[in-house]
């Protein structure tokens, strides 16, 4: 709490964020990196100003080139100067873009869906990550289904001493 966070959606191929947040017409990272928009046109303040979002923008024909560009390096350096945390959401690691972005990051969080993530693909990714100097900070399990009634029963079973 109280930290300034930039969330950069760097999945310039298949991000679903613009659809979910109704940002399809919003210029984003691809427009900024290709000199079609200024930074203040692509940053969206949220959460009372503690969180700022940079959406992916329109999917460009050359995402790898844009993400590997000196302008991307300069952007990340500028964001790091102005925030406590910069989160870069990348495409899956099987895409070259993720390897490029991981080399620019201070740490890597791996997001998996336990019931959907292919174990062999995960093992292959871990081998690739061994070759990257950026440390893996942890794993986030996404899409876990809560058992119906678990929390309801949990709280009903607690007895309070008055």
Describe the structure.
With 162 residues, this protein is α/β, with parallel strands linked by helices. The chain has one domain: P-loop containing nucleotide triphosphate hydrolases (Rossmann fold, 3-Layer(aba) Sandwich). 36% of the residues lie in helices and 17% in strands. It contains eight helices and six strands; from the N terminus they run E-H-H-H-E-E-H-H-E-H-E-H-E-H.
Strand line-up across the major sheet: 2-3-1-4
Number of strands: 6
Rounded average pLDDT: 86
* Class from helix and strand fractions: alpha/beta
Uncertain residue segments: 157-162
Look at the structure and give the CATH class: Alpha Beta
Note the beta-strand portion: 15-25%
CATH architecture: 3-Layer(aba) Sandwich
Question: What is the domain tally?
Answer: 1
CATH fold type: Rossmann fold
Summarize the structure.
This protein is an alpha/beta fold and 162 residues long. It is built from eight helices and six strands; from the N terminus they run βαααββααβαβαβα. It has a single domain, classed as Rossmann fold, CATH 3.40.50.300.
SSE topology:
Elements: E1 5-9, H1 17-20, H2 29-33, H3 39-42, E2 44-46, E3 51-54, H4 63-67, H5 70-82, E4 85-89, H6 96-104, E5 108-112, H7 119-129, E6 136-141, H8 150-156
Parallel strand pairs: 1-3, 1-4, 5-6
Antiparallel strand pairs: 2-3
Features:
Rossmann fold, two-stranded parallel ribbon, single chain, 162 residues, 6 strands, disordered C terminus, alpha/beta, 4-stranded mixed β-sheet
């Amino acid at each position: 709490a109280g930290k300034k966070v930039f969330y950069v959606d760097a999945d310039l191929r298949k991000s679903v964020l613009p659809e979910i947040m109704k940002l399809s017409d919003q210029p984003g990272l691809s427009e900024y990196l290709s000199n079609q928009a200024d930074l203040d046109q692509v940053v969206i303040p949220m959460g009372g100003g503690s969180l700022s979002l940079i959406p992916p923008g329109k999917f460009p024909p050359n995402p790898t080139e844009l993400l590997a560009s000196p302008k991307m390096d300069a952007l990340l350096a500028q964001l790091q100067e102005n925030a406590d945390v910069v989160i870069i959401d990348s495409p899956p690691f099987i895409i070259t873009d993720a390897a490029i972005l991981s080399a620019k990051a201070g740490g890597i969080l791996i997001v998996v869906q336990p019931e959907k993530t292919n174990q062999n693909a995960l093992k292959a990714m871990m081998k690739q990550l061994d070759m990257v100097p950026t440390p893996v900070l942890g794993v986030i399990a996404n899409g876990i289904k809560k058992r119906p009634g678990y929390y309801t029963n949990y709280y009903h079973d607690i007895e309070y001493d008055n």
